[in-house]
Amino acid sequence: MSALSITSMIRSAGVVTVVLRGSVGRADVGALRAALGEILRVNRPATLELDLAGLLEIDPGVTGMVAVIIVDANRGTKIRIVRASVAVRRQLRLTGGEDLLG
């Protein structure tokens, strides 16, 4: 597994894109939760896009936790996952994150 990198950028009014690169393992869950919470608190976007094009893998043991974190982070913001690989999409579907796939 390679280290998780989290980068955020404002794409347009009301839309923030968060780009994840590398891998998500058990050790990354807290950092992901904190980063999403901070981005939502500071920016309060109408839409948050999680760009997963650079995500190599999600540890199958944490995929469900990641989906729950994303849904829990919502706070009135529409959250959608974009540019996820076939393997990541499959893992999200299996763990209840299918509604987040854009």
UniProtKB/TrEMBL annotation:
Top-level taxonomic group: Bacteria
Gene3D superfamilies per UniProt: STAS domain (3.30.750.24)
Name of the featured protein: STAS domain-containing protein
Record-linked InterPro entries: STAS_dom, STAS_dom_sf
Location of the STAS domain: 5-102
